[in-house]
Amino acid sequence: MKLVTGGAFQGKKEYAKLRFGLKDEDMTDGALASFEEIFQCRCMYHFHEWVKKGLKENWDFGGLEDRLLATNPQILLITNELGYGVVPVDAFDRNYRETAGRVCTRLAAKSSQVIRVVCGIGTVIKDA
Questions:
Q1: What is the b/e burial string over 74-88, where b = at least 16 CB atoms within 10 angstroms of the residue's CB?
Q2: Angle in degrees, CA 15, 19, 25, rounded to 5
Q3: Hey, what domains does the chain have and what are their CATH numbers?
Q4: What is the DSSP secondary-structure string of 45-109?
Q5: Has keyword Transferase (predicted)?
Q6: CA dist., res. 59 & res. 43, Å (int)
Q7: Is the entire prediction scored with pTM above 0.70?
């Protein structure tokens, strides 16, 4: 499992396509994906939107990292970093930001590689 993270509009998806030899058809949009699609796709971008959708649909994210490692260990997840801005006033948005951060923290701990992308430039922050 690999995780690519960074701010919005920093070139994460294009970076991942070049770095990992992906084509558009290899990539699943997390904003549109079902819960089960993450266990079958090669790469999911907008992972943070998948988390948001899951919160709205009451998905259980407990043990997600272990289940991914067991069923789809080669997955590449691309997500926005949500924790650097102003804390949202809306309770759902605060919960979403916190949940996405906690899920990504657990995924990063289990990932073989974590890359942060800024201005289209990737910096490897973990390479196990």
A1: ebbbbbbbbeeeeee
A2: 80
A3: 2-127 (3.40.50.300)
A4: E-HHHHHHHHHHTT---TTHHHHHHHH-TT-EEEEE--TTSPPPSSHHHHHHHHHHHHHHHHHHH
A5: yes
A6: 20
A7: yes
